[in-house]
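User: quick one, sequence for these tokens?
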């Protein structure tokens, strides 16, 4: 019975492979053969491929789902011509920015590729430092949501003066921790395969360097900006990249604790050169076969894995209104123009750009977009507009150096309580109403505000980097026009 079952499943797997290959172009079929050769060489030959375990870490984006499909095609192709094939560990991280649509995309991709119930495949999901079987329907528990929110706030309050608020510093830390730990779990893996471009690899390493400095771990050692060095750098940083913010009793271990290998044997296998074609050429595979559905507001920027244009534009609008003394519309519109110009510069198909951008009044008013963005942020992070505005001001670090400006701009009625606020942030006793106000306006417990109070801000980035950013922004504005009156609005995909 077992033999009959195995024969039936092998037939199913070959049918899956044939349908998958039917969506591949000639160039993609050639790339697939080169990928197979690369994996066989890395394993030490075809006779060892059956004992070789490969890790892939899809995030739910289009590119990551395509990479998974390419690896599955390689796994099934080898199985059709050899006694064994490599084992595949498919693991994803569930963090604050992971929405239900992302998990649904992964679930549909896994189902289309027949990953479920294949003994050669492990499907894992890490949630709140716990390794679990993948389950796209699993609700986000309260402790996990609280931890995600707190990590984001602590990282955001640590940014340098005049630095724009980015939500992706926390993502860099979370994903880096995840890469380092999931490669050691359950007897480990032999190879981590990823298809990020060299530019994206360097961008991630730069983002991680900035993030670990904000987390109080110091700058990373000099490196070449590639994933070849990532595991060694992570080993040097230690397993808990958030430890600078929390006391020993507040830290959470990775679980199950006894199922992580002490020594990692993993090497990085770069397959970015195997990813050929563009989004339009891959769209049939993604949509018809994998069932990928574009998450509302999510752009295929490629270089910005975590970018959400509506959220970014909304935060730019809030910063312009509350911090910059301009209008919400001005900050929102300028960010949209930069995003659109960057999309075109990176080769995003014009049809995709047109789906995301509309002229004013065609679908949604600015007020409706603002409300949509605020609801998205509230749902994802549990933070209201007042708490986001507090984060934009970063009033607590450097012994509350920015507190007075924050109060004068947003809460003038609390100016009389400034002495009580400073005492509370020094860990001294304060009126209960003042302590509650601090928590309500920031989203943080007073003990963590006190830790921020004792921290210094990071120095501003170097002048050369700032100059490059300013030049790119100027180019973006020039490419799309600089008038607010003809502003471009983000629009949801159908």
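Assistant:
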């Amino acid at each position: 019975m077992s033999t009959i079952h195995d024969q039936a499943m092998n037939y199913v797997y070959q049918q899956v492979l044939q349908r998958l290959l039917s969506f591949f172009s000639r160039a993609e079929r050639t790339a697939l053969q080169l990928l197979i050769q690369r994996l066989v060489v890395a394993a030490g030959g075809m006779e060892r491929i059956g004992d070789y375990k490969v890790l892939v870490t899809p995030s739910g984006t289009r590119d990551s789902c395509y990479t998974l499909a390419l690896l599955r095609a390689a796994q099934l192709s080898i199985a059709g011509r050899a006694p064994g094939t490599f084992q595949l560990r498919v693991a994803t991280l569930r963090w604050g920015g992971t929405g239900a649509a992302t998990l649904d995309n992964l679930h549909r991709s896994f189902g289309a590729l027949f990953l479920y119930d294949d003994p050669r495949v492990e499907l894992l999901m890490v949630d709140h430092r716990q390794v679990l079987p993948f389950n796209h329907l699993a609700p986000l528990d309260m402790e996990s949501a609280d931890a995600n929110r707190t990590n984001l706030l602590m990282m955001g309050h640590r940014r340098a003066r005049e630095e724009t608020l980015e939500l992706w510093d926390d993502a860099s830390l979370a994903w880096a921790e995840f890469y380092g730990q999931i490669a050691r779990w359950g007897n480990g893996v032999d190879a981590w395969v990823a298809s990020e471009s060299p530019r994206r690899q360097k961008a991630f390493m730069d983002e991680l360097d900035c993030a670990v400095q904000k987390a109080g771990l110091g700058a990373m050692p000099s490196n070449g900006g590639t994933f070849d060095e990532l595991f060694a750098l992570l080993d040097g940083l230690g397993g808990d990249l958030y430890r600078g913010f929390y006391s020993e009793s507040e830290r959470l271990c990775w679980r199950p604790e006894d199922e992580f290998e002490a020594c990692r044997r993993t090497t990085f296998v770069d397959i970015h050169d195997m990813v050929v074609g563009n989004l339009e050429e891959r769209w049939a595979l993604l949509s018809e076969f994998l069932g990928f559905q574009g998450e509302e507001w999510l752009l295929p920027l490629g270089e910005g894995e975590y970018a959400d244009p509506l959220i970014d534009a909304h935060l730019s609008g809030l910063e312009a209104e509350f911090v910059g003394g301009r209008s919400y519309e001005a900050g929102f519109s300028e960010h949209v123009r930069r995003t659109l110009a960057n999309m075109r510069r990176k080769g995003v198909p014009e049809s995709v750009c047109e789906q995301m951008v509309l002229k004013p009044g065609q679908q949604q008013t600015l007020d409706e977009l603002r409300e949509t963005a605020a609801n998205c942020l509230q749902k994802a992070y549990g933070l209201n507009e007042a708490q986001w505005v507090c984060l934009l001001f970063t009033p607590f670090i450097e012994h509350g150096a920015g507190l007075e400006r924050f109060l004068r701009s947003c809460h003038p009625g609390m100016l009389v309580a400034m002495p009580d606020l400073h005492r509370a942030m020094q860990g001294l006793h304060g009126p209960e109403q003042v302590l509650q106000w601090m928590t309500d306006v920031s989203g943080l417990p007073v003990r963590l505000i006190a830790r921020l109070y004792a921290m210094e801000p990071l120095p501003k980035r170097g002048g050369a980097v700032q100059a490059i950013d300013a030049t790119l922004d100027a180019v973006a504005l020039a490419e799309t026009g600089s008038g607010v009156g003809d502003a471009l609005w983000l629009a949801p995909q159908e």
